[in-house]
Amino acid sequence: MNKLAPLLLFLFACSTDTLGPWTGDCTISADGEPVVYAIGLDIESDAGGVIVGTALFDVTGLGDEAEVDLDGIRKGKDVELELTVPDDVGVPVAMNLEAKVKGDEMIGECILLIGVSLRGDLELTRGVAEEQEDGTKTAR
């Protein structure tokens, strides 16, 4: 048993936990002006590297949130997620997220798919967003 302890400790240290709520945004510069898309994820499962959950996604960058299904894969610390807005929302849009999980942060790239692909910076923090007095939101 003592010979297995270092191996088990190594495997535990290398595992990545993505479960639970994540909040943050995707910032895309369009015509030189940044547009911020708020994102809230609730990852319910990542068993076997298959991620399943739901997301709140600001489909227009103007605060028009839609609840969407969240599907993706995790390979070690690398995460690829897809948020697809249902047709009945009236906006033909999807967003893909490609990120690395580093503790309580998910940092990477977001790709907004609206007939063309627009790329931007993704920053998510584990926890539920809480609005501050100055109007900014932080994860708790």
Describe the structure.
With 140 residues, the chain is mainly beta. It has one domain (17-139): Lipocalin, CATH 2.40.128.30. 8% of the residues lie in helices and 61% in strands. It has one helix and ten strands; from the N terminus they run αββββββββββ. β7 and β8 (117-126) form a beta hairpin. It starts with a helix and ends with a strand. 26% of the residues are buried.
Please describe the topology of this protein.
Elements: H1 4-14, E1 20-30, E2 33-45, E3 50-58, E4 65-75, E5 78-84, E6 94-102, E7 105-113, E8 117-126, E9 129-131, E10 137-139
Antiparallel strand pairs: 1-2, 1-8, 2-3, 3-4, 4-5, 5-6, 6-7, 7-8, 9-10
Largest sheet: 8 strands, antiparallel, barrel
Give the CATH architecture.
Beta Barrel
Order of SSEs: HEEEEEEEEEE
Level of helix content? under 10%
Distance between the termini: 39 Å
CATH class: Mainly Beta
- Our count of helices gives 1
Task: Report the principal-axis shape.
Answer: globular
Give the class from helix and strand content and strand pairing: mainly beta
User: How many strands?
Assistant: 10
Question: How many distinct domains?
Answer: 1
Within the largest sheet, what's the order of strands? 1-2-3-4-5-6-7-8
Query: What is the average of the pLDDT values?
Result: 82
Radius of gyration: 17 Å
Low-confidence stretches: 4-14, 136-140
> CATH superfamily name?
Avidin-like
Q: Which fold does the CATH topology refer to?
A: Lipocalin
